[in-house]
Design brief:
homodimer, TIM Barrel, 17 helices, 3-stranded antiparallel β-sheet
Chain lengths: ~425, ~425
């Protein structure tokens, strides 16, 4: 059983803090089993009611309660440990009440392993401003979908992309939705600020996210029955001073886990700089999740700052465009639509013990994409998932053996 | 080893017949192991270089060298025995030469069981006139794609749907393409006439198809190396007298198998009437394939006239629209997009030992289709394939036990 006490020293830093009690997380736990000597990298065990996973690990995005064109059977075959679904999408279709009536997300999706949901806030804000990835990566975009109608202290009002209905999301509603969905790991409600906003706006938003964190905890505590572990989210944009205040806040509250969210800047250096800045302030006994980030390069860099779990749509999203993740090639991936693969008889990776990687020639997969056959997408998606899971297994071994830099060179040659 | 002699008595009926020699089909065979007492229904063994299958059986359409969104692994899991691919599509993308260089269709697709290709003619003609299904079923259509440019005694000239290039298909080219593709069972080149043409046109076309049959045999014999078995195709539209001439021709020539093609009329009765008319004329020692037909009802009706194999895109095509084949429901299928399945916790068929049929609720699959998730299509496609394979297993058992009518009532309640 994990119990997350309030760090009294840090608590005072959260202005307007409302929350002042302890929360037990029975059936949950996090144990660091190996700590790297030369960096913050660590191997751990993250225990949930649906099983214990080794960390660092990768949480695959089953946005609308489905990993895109990869079945749960195929996810297991690709040695997947944990997946996530998005509260925002599910509140619109099919609705959290229906998922609850069907026995919760695990049963609904037929996934019996650990699972995470986000608060829904991220999509509300990012779809209001532009795309999700644009927000995290700090890319400005003019294509506002204008689905976000209003943000107040109370919460966010937005329009459903499904039928235009006016919907509200706030900490209490998010906790209720996530309780009904029933994932093991859940997220506090926060505001995800855009790259282009001022520091002043980012600061005010971060402070509101802290108050929303306390409201999330209060709502969570009321119905908490030991089935879920709540993560607090560190905001603060690209500003280290703000990030530190937010990290201090999250560590001071009885969250089960720590998540790093929000805008992470316009360059890799800016992103990793944020991780470095908050690292000393993160609660030492809690798992740390990096929201929405997960290129192979990001995994190698971020584990050094103590990141335990990642999530990103990248593995299945790039598969849709014919891009396969390959160990040891430049830029992590190859584009199978490229005509140079037209008559390439070699499989994606003969060393992998899974049909999608081992049994189809690149020529065949190239043909499937040229012919518009969905099987191509299915094969490459499952392959990409299997590659990432292999990456995470190898990263864990390398941390244990102190060979992370050597492993990185194998995966990402200069 | 199967050897298909010329039936001398019938040979004279083929006007302008060119072909007058015997062809051996080493590595092929067809044996009727059980003959129904009350109908033409029979159980048999069809031997090919890639394995022996029991008949009646169903050949699933892998049009562009891929069963739509169902992998070979999943096809095997659904207990599939045999699949086909379409020469017309493959000659356009990726080209038969490339498939040959990649080791042939079996290796290219990673399917190690028996496989069939058609001549390519059907799609040339049907895409010239309208859709394939419209042609077979006798539905008139005004949406001519005008891809067919010219039909002469020499062959058909048509435009590639890929890049508009002018292409030729004739018996010699079709045999060459099918040899390169390398399927076990291949088809003679024929002309597939439309429903609306006159009897005179149908007769002239059928006579040309007979001459094309002989040209196919001549071309086939030149490079025949024992890897492929050639089917002749019975044409003649809805006219029983023409069908009988064509059936007599096919039986008179040393084809390995008999196929029933062309326009089959506007009603089920007309279609089954054609099967009844030709049944006494079909070569008794050869497998009979019914081209492009394969509803559950068709299977029950057609096996009574000695049909041994079926093919139809129906199982995977209807899956794309959310329709699942279900044993024992009206109209053979349910539409999972229908809102009545929104909160149906039951699986598609709990009695089937395969995850797609057993492990997902209808509510979940309904959600996947509402949310536009391809996993829904994947699940229902594999389910439909598994249902058809179960149907064929049960049909074979019922023929052996003389219980075909009782089985039909279980599958298709009035």
């Amino acid at each position: 059983m994990a119990s997350q006490p309030i760090k009294k020293s840090a608590q005072a830093s959260a202005e307007g803090g409302l929350f002042d009690s302890n929360i037990d997380y029975p059936n949950f736990g996090f144990e660091v089993t190996h700590q790297d000597k030369n960096s913050g990298a660590r191997v751990g065990k993250l225990k949930t009611p649906h099983g214990t996973i080794e960390t660092p690990n990768y949480i695959f995005c089953g946005t609308k309660a489905s990993i895109k064109n990869v079945s749960p059977v195929q996810m297991k075959e690709a040695q997947t440990d944990i997946i996530l679904a998005n509260t925002y999408h599910l509140m619109i279709q099919p609705g959290a009440d229906l998922v609850e009536r069907m026995g919760g997300l695990h049963k609904f999706m037929n996934w019996n392993g650990p699972m995470l949901t986000d608060s829904g806030g991220f999509q509300v804000f990012s779809m209001g401003h532009g795309t999700c990835a644009d927000e995290i990566k700090g890319r400005n975009t003019s294509k506002s979908k204008e689905s976000l109608m209003k943000i107040t202290e109370e919460g966010a009002i937005f329009k459903s992309y499904h039928d235009g209905a006016k919907l509200m999301l706030n900490p209490e509603i998010s906790m209720d939705l996530q309780r009904k969905l029933g994932a093991d790991l859940i997220m506090q409600m926060d505001e995800c600020t855009a790259y282009q906003v001022t520091k002043d706006y980012t600061a005010k938003s971060m402070e509101m996210s802290m108050r929303w964190g306390d409201r999330s905890l209060t709502a969570f505590e009321k119905t908490h029955d030991g089935r879920q572990g709540l993560y607090g989210i560190i905001q603060g944009g690209v500003h280290h001073d703000l990030r530190k205040i937010s990290a201090d806040y999250v560590a001071s509250r009885p969250f089960f886990g720590t998540a790093v969210g929000g805008c992470l800047g316009g360059s890799d250096e800016e992103m990793y700089g944020i991780l470095e800045a908050i690292q000393p302030l993160n609660h030492p006994d809690r798992p740390i999740h990096f929201l929405g980030i997960g290129r192979i390069k990001d995994v190698f860099e971020s584990v050094k700052y103590g990141i335990d779990t990642f999530d990103c749509v990248m593995p299945t999203r790039i598969a849709r465009h014919g891009m396969a993740l390959i160990r040891g090639v430049k830029n992590e991936r190859i584009n199978l639509v490229n005509s140079k693969f037209k008559d390439d008889p070699e499989p994606l990776d003969a060393s992998m013990d899974i049909p999608c990687s081992r049994d189809y020639s690149k020529a065949y997969i190239h043909h499937l994409f040229k012919a518009g056959e969905m099987l191509g997408y299915q094969i490459v998606s499952q392959h990409n998932v299997a590659v990432i899971n292999r990456l995470m297994r190898e990263v864990r071994e390398a941390i244990k053996n102190g060979t992370l830099d050597a492993l990185r060179k194998e995966w990402l040659p200069e």
